[in-house]
């Protein structure tokens, strides 16, 4: 188990707000954490530390990890990136057939940096977008080929697009006034909105 969250907002908000919301999901798993905000990735081993962080962002993508594949260290902490750094992903769950999917992507020239099962999502999107496939087709292929459980949030920087995919791990969407939240648990955003969409297995969401 672990917690994932994305916040996309029309107005800049404090990075600390994103981190505070991520911290609310720490009970789901907390050996390490990481997030993407304002164009940068931060990763740390241990509990979420709210000290010393400032700055604003319009997009925040965060993860608290409970390691299943690969040791507990900053390289294996999420978010993970594709080869170019354009695609940012966080994943909750496990992919049972990740070895064969990873080998296939490696044979197509992809370079993996972590030991996690999760990183395949980033390279899978990179490969699909390179082939000019639609997000829908890329995701439907994931539903067909990835065995295991997953709630995944993907942020594609150059398209400013968020994609959320659910199969087996929880994922809920909150519609705020200026913000959309996607998270493992409504607890992450209920103070700001009670307008909630609960995603079902084999459902996905594309924003942007
Ligand atoms: N299987 C992934 C990993 O080991 C995600 C674990 C989780 O759900 O925190 O990084």
From TrEMBL:
Q: Which controlled-vocabulary keywords does the entry list?
A: Aminotransferase, Glutamine amidotransferase, Transferase
Record domain Glutamine amidotransferase type-2: where: 2-208
EC top class, as a word = transferase
User: What PROSITE patterns does the record point to?
Assistant: GATASE_TYPE_2 (PS51278)
Q: Write out the catalysed reaction.
A: D-fructose 6-phosphate + L-glutamine = D-glucosamine 6-phosphate + L-glutamate
Gene Ontology terms, MF aspect: glutamine-fructose-6-phosphate transaminase (isomerizing) activity
Looking at the record's lineage, which domain of life comes first? Archaea
Show the Gene3D superfamilies listed in the entry.
Glutamine Phosphoribosylpyrophosphate, subunit 1, domain 1
Q: Which CDD domains match?
A: GFAT (cd00714)
Gene Ontology BP annotations:
fructose 6-phosphate metabolic process; protein N-linked glycosylation; UDP-N-acetylglucosamine metabolic process
Q: What is its EC number?
A: 2.6.1.16
Keyword flag Transferase: yes
- Record protein name field: glutamine--fructose-6-phosphate transaminase (isomerizing)
Species whose genome carries this gene: Candidatus Nanoclepta minutus
User: What lineage is on file?
Assistant: Archaea, Nanobdellota, Candidatus Nanoclepta
């Amino acid at each position: 188990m672990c917690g994932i969250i994305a916040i996309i907002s029309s107005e800049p908000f404090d990075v600390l707000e994103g981190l505070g919301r991520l911290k609310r999901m720490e009970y789901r798993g907390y050996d390490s954490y990481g997030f993407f905000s304002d164009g940068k990735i931060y990763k740390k081993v241990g509990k979420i530390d709210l000290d010393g962080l400032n700055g604003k962002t319009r997009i925040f993508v965060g993860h608290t990890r409970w390691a299943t594949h690969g040791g507990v260290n900053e390289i294996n902490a999420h978010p993970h990136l594709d080869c170019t750094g354009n695609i940012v992903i966080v994943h909750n769950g496990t992919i049972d057939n990740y070895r064969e999917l990873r080998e296939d992507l490696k044979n197509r020239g992809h370079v993996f940096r972590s030991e996690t099962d999760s990183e395949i999502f980033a390279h899978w999107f990179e490969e699909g977008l390179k082939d000019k496939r639609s997000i829908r087709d890329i995701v439907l292929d994931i539903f067909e080929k990835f065995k295991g459980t997953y709630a995944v949030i993907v942020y594609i920087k150059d398209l400013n697009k968020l994609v959320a995919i659910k199969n087996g791990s929880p994922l809920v969407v909150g519609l705020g006034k200026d913000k959309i939240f996607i998270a493992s648990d409504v607890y992450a955003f209920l103070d700001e909105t009670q307008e909630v969409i609960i995603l079902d297995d084999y459902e996905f969401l594309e924003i942007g």
